[in-house]
Automatic annotation (TrEMBL):
InterPro entries reported for this sequence: Cyt_trans-like, NadD/NMNAT, Rossmann-like_a/b/a_fold
CDD domains xref list: NMNAT
Gene, per the UniProt record: nadD
Name of this chain's protein: Probable nicotinate-nucleotide adenylyltransferase
Entry keywords, A to Z: ATP-binding, NAD, Nucleotide-binding, Nucleotidyltransferase, Pyridine nucleotide biosynthesis, Transferase
One BP annotation, GO: NAD+ biosynthetic process
EC assignment: 2.7.7.18
ATP-binding listed as a keyword: yes
GO terms, molecular function: ATP binding; nicotinate-nucleotide adenylyltransferase activity
Record keyword Mitochondrion present: no
Lineage top rank: taxon: Bacteria
Entry similarity comment: Belongs to the NadD family.
Organism in which the protein naturally occurs: Vagococcus intermedius
A Pfam family reported for this protein in Swiss-Prot or TrEMBL: CTP_transf_like
C-alpha cells in the first residue's frame, strides 16, 4: 500500500495545484526540545520534493506516551522554533496543540485542523521508524481519512505498510534533541547541530545545564 515518490507524482501534484484552489500543507509534529537541523532538513526536503505550499512545525504540549517525558516549557520551545524558522517563509509554526494543552493525539489535532481549514489538504510527516507502530495509533483509520501520511525513509526499517504512505528520501543526519541536551549538560560543543540563534538562546537562558 505504500508508494515511493517519483517524478510522475511530482508533476501530477504540480498540475493539481495549478488547477485547484486547495492548499497542500505539510505537518511535522514533535517536541522540538530543542529544534535542530535534522528537523529543518526533513521539513525542507518534504516541502520541495512534494511541491507543497507550506510546512508547519507543530510542537506538542504533552506527548501521548505512557512513559512521561520531561520537557521544558512550551514558551521556551516556541521561542527556539521562531528563531530557527525566521528566515524561511515556507516554514511556519502551528500552535494548536500548545494552545489546547493536555495530551496530544494526532487524530484529534488533525480533525480540528481540517475543520478549521476545509480548503487544505494535509500531509502528515512521520519517520520511517514509526511506521510499524501505526496500527497502535489512536483512531488510525479515522486519521487516514483526514490526511496523507508521508514517511521519511530510515535505514534498516521497511518501506511497506498496510496504510498508504508517500515515501521521501532525506539526507541522513544522526542528530537528536536528546543528544543535544546531553552535550549541553556536559558542556560539549553543539555547533552546527542546530541554528546559531537557537544555540545563543540556549546559552542565554541556561537551558539543559542541569542534565
Amino acid at each position: 500500500m505504500s508508494e515511493t515518490l517519483n517524478r510522475t507524482q511530482i508533476v501530477a501534484r504540480t498540475e493539481l495545484k495549478e488547477t485547484s484552489k486547495r492548499q497542500q500543507v505539510g505537518i511535522l509534529g514533535g517536541n522540538f526540545n530543542p529544534v535542530h537541523h535534522a528537523h529543518l532538513i526533513v521539513a525542507d526536503q518534504v516541502y520541495h520534493q512534494l511541491g507543497l505550499d507550506k510546512i508547519y512545525l507543530m510542537p506538542t504540549y504533552e506527548p501521548p506516551h505512557i512513559d512521561h517525558k520531561t520537557t521544558i516549557s512550551s514558551e521556551l520551545r516556541l521561542d527556539m522554533l521562531e528563531l530557527a524558522l525566521a528566515s524561511d517563509d515556507y516554514l511556519e509554526i502551528e500552535t494548536l496543540e500548545i494552545n489546547r494543552a493536555g495530551k496530544s493525539y494526532t487524530y484529534e489535532t488533525m480533525k480540528t485542523l481540517t475543520e478549521l481549514n476545509p480548503d487544505v489538504d494535509y500531509y502528515f510527516i512521520i519517520g520511517g521508524d514509526m511506521v510499524e507502530y501505526l496500527p497502535k495509533w489512536y483512531e488510525i483509520e479515522k486519521l487516514m481519512s483526514l490526511v496523507q501520511l508521508v514517511g521519511v525513509r530510515r535505514p534498516n526499517y521497511p518501506i511497506t505498510s498496510e496504510y498508504p504512505l508517500i515515501w521521501v528520501d532525506v539526507p541522513l543526519m544522526d542528530i537528536s534533541s536528546s543528544l543535544i541536551r546531553a552535550k549541553v549538560a556536559k558542556g560539549d560543543s553543539v555547533n552546527y547541530l542546530l541554528p546559531r540563534d537557537v544555540i545563543n538562546y540556549i546559552e542565554m537562558k541556561g537551558l539543559y545545564r542541569d542534565g
